[in-house]
Amino acid sequence: MQENGQIVRTPLSVAPPREPLETSRKRSARTFFDEIAPRYERVAHQQGAGLASISTYELAFIRTQLQPHAGVRLLDVGSGTGRIAADLLARGAHVTCLDLAPRMLAENQNRNGEGQADFICADASKRIPLADRSVDGIVCCRVLKYMATWPTAISEMARVVRPGGRVVLEVATRFSCESLGLAFKPMVYHLHEPHEISAVMAASGLTVVDQYYGTRLPFALYQRARSHLFLWWLLTFEDLFARILAPGQLCRSVLLAAVRTDPAPT
Ligand SMILES: C[S@@+](CC[C@H](N)C(=O)[O-])C[C@H]1O[C@@H](n2cnc3c(N)ncnc32)[C@H](O)[C@@H]1O
Asked: Which of 144, 145, 239, 262 is most exposed, with the fewest beta carbons within 10 Å of its own?
């Protein structure tokens, strides 16, 4: 594992937390996720899809965009305990897992340490400690909302992905966070609208080429249903059916897939 530029080969041994878990936004994301790391997956799965758990539709979208196979170098920003990285590694890609919280990374290392993975402890909203154009693709899922300076993270992702490479960003919306549990809610800095994120991506040289909305409805209808109360029942019905037919698989987050369209600044 690499922390602050130094390679640490053994899993990090982290001192027990000094303070009890406190869900104040003033608390840093690093402290919060370090605290919750050992029970993150359990807590996350209690929250339902769209929050911590990754739906099969989302995973399929990420795979289609990033084409994880042998020889492909991927970066997982805010990799957490490595659920997404595990899927990409299983398909043969090399994955660099980057996270702010050493304990989340330690859980990730326990899970994926035997595979073709690297582990970096860093704050992606300040600087990603990788060279320009050094990866083929990036995934950043369930992370942006915890970053106060998320535009910097986007420009850093644009810098490290090669021209032609893809970046898949999850955008947490009001809808995807509806059932966000009390443990996580106070940590959220920003809920976004996809157009807000894609504008910042465009300014960094990332052109959105595909998107996944957590719905099986035609997108135009979905957009109208989101903004018109009289169509709201459509989403409610979809929720109900999803709960019965595919529990945990419907997620109202938006995934944006962008391609690096011009050379990254050096
Ligand atoms: C909700 S978890 C999601 C983990 C993983 N992406 C997944 O979907 O399973 C959010 C993760 O983002 C990390 N994180 C939050 N802010 C970060 C930052 N500024 N730089 C790097 N990682 C960050 C947290 O430490 C945490 O592990």
From this structure: 262
